[in-house]
Amino acid sequence: MPKVLISDKMDPRAAQIFRERGLEVDEITGKTPQELRAIIGTYDGLAIRSSTKVTPDLLEAATNLKVVGRAGIGVDNVDIPAASAKGVVVMNTPFGNSITTAEHAIALMFALARQLPEADASTQAGKWEKNRFMGVELTSKVLGLIGAGNIGSIVADRARGLKMRVIAFDPFLTPERAVEIGVEKVSLDDLLSRADFITLHTPLTDQTRNILSRENLAKTKKGVRIINCARGGLIDEAALKELLDSGHVAGAALDVFQTEPATDSPLFGTPGFISTPHLGASTTEAQVNVAIQVAEQMADYLTTGGVTNALNMPSLSAEEAPKLKPYMALAEKLGSLVGQLAHGAITSVAVEAEGAAAELNLKPITSAVLAGFLRVHSDTVNMVNAPFLARERGLDVREIRHEREGDYHTLVRVTVGTRDGERSVAGTLVGNEAPRLVELFGIKVEADLAGPMLYVVNEDRPGFIGRLGTLLGEANVNIGTFHLGRRQAGGEAIVLLSVDEPVTPDLLARVKALPDVRTAMGLNF
Ligand SMILES: NC(=O)C1=CN([C@@H]2O[C@H](COP(=O)(O)OP(=O)(O)OC[C@H]3O[C@@H](n4cnc5c(N)ncnc54)[C@H](O)[C@@H]3O)[C@@H](O)[C@H]2O)C=CC1
Ligand SMILES: O=C(O)C(=O)COP(=O)(O)O
């Protein structure tokens, strides 16, 4: 039974779903990285929010881990390349808390406009400072969005309802989408100089880190108010403090900080500064959404292989997964076969689908080919890390669909490119289920690829099969299945046979010494 660890505070529905889906679940929150490292080894799944840091160090100890599920959006607390390299799927819940977070940004914008926290503190202190708290209206003000994705576009929608003019800097925002969400697409400099309010809604990446740098903050309009419900690393906090002190920035509301938990910050106590402790996603509705979603996604993956919202693997629906499973087995075997047989440096891998296979999602099939192929050299390769490792090796990977149906109702062909040219193998599914090789390096040969096998290339001459059979019999090697193919009579022929025990170097040497043998190899599936 797969085991899941919930390591950050999560709605109880997550644990309930894991149990209902037949998984074992432990909820152990608030652990230090060292404590987590000590227990992670037995778990197949790890469900987190933003507190748990999935570092290379934690992953190293996570010897059984197959999936990390982030009940939320931002995954900057997960080292995705390290997870991918270890073959761990990383999933998030990209929409579950977006409305809630957008509403928090709007709440902070109002709080800044009317100095609500200070006014509240003063009033409750019995001061009744009616003249101290003069606010500004939002109507007709310019709101500058940095990042106009899911959350940014909801903020834009709400702000337009408040009669604000919304401008957005987002290099990936298309002009059509800008029109659709009712924002004016602008450059960052334009936004900085025009916005009365600036709100950040980008992920934290190498491109967005410090996007409101000291230099960029200095380009803002005097009296600007800044809201950050995205990630702490997006703003230079020291520069922000100075600009608040000088009065250039009229107000700043941060829900997120460079270092969290932020129990101490030079910004604390600065006039015009408001903070919340990373509450963007903290509503009952959002937490129920993300807990249910992450648990369903992780349970799907651990029980059916279905993949939804993975950041390091193509999606594969729970309905698709059973249909693709036999294809993935076929693809792994074909990948493994070319991996074992192809000599020399491989520079490209092409995966072609014909007939029924052409109707399917090819991404998982390709990942399985690459996994089978790369596993020949490393047994830690799986479908998650194979595409990543292939990229690292500079392999040119292509997927090709053919509408035509050939001799088989469904066919997957794998062609690898080497310095000596291309070599290709192809297979089908018998009864839509059982993987079967049908072509090897241009020669038609039908074989099940399973267990230890012996592969021989020979001259097609009478008597050869008998001599090979005799040799194997004398060596006490039991033959399970025997498959033959040839290019043309008297030309190059191949023998593929399954044997009960792995082929020993000694047996291989004797096979190679037989007359008419060009080459021989032991294979394993
Ligand atoms: N405070 C909180 O509790 C929460 C914070 N978040 C944060 O909000 C972020 C945004 O979430 P979504 O809108 O759902 O993500 P999203 O992926 O839908 O949108 C992000 C947008 O940022 C844009 N972007 C990327 N690089 C950029 C750059 N260099 N400059 C400008 N724009 C850039 C993208 O094109 C995209 O449109 C998350 O990554 C997360 O870090 C999300 C939920 C809750
Ligand atoms: O979803 C996100 O990106 C968030 O930042 C929410 O964080 P949390 O789950 O509340 O720790």
From TrEMBL:
Transmembrane segments: none annotated. GO terms for biological process: L-serine biosynthetic process. The keyword Cell wall biogenesis/degradation does not apply. One of its GO terms (molecular function) is phosphoglycerate dehydrogenase activity. The keyword Nuclease does not apply. It holds the Pfam family 2-Hacid_dh. InterPro entries: ACT-like_dom_sf, ACT_dom, ASB_dom_sf, D-isomer_2_OHA_DH_cat_dom, D-isomer_DH_CS, D-isomer_DH_NAD-bd, NAD(P)-bd_dom_sf, PGDH. Residues 453-525 form the ACT domain. Signal peptide: none annotated. Its EC number is 1.1.1.95. Pathway: Amino-acid biosynthesis; L-serine biosynthesis; L-serine from 3-phospho-D-glycerate: step 1/3. It comes from the Bacteria. It catalyses: (2R)-3-phosphoglycerate + NAD(+) = 3-phosphooxypyruvate + NADH + H(+); (R)-2-hydroxyglutarate + NAD(+) = 2-oxoglutarate + NADH + H(+). Keywords: Amino-acid biosynthesis, NAD, Oxidoreductase, Serine biosynthesis. CDD domains: ACT_3PGDH-xct, PGDH_4. Catalyzes the reversible oxidation of 3-phospho-D-glycerate to 3-phosphonooxypyruvate, the first step of the phosphorylated L-serine biosynthesis pathway. Also catalyzes the reversible oxidation of 2-hydroxyglutarate to 2-oxoglutarate. Belongs to the D-isomer specific 2-hydroxyacid dehydrogenase family. NCBIfam families: PGDH. This is D-3-phosphoglycerate dehydrogenase. It comes from Sphingomonas lenta.
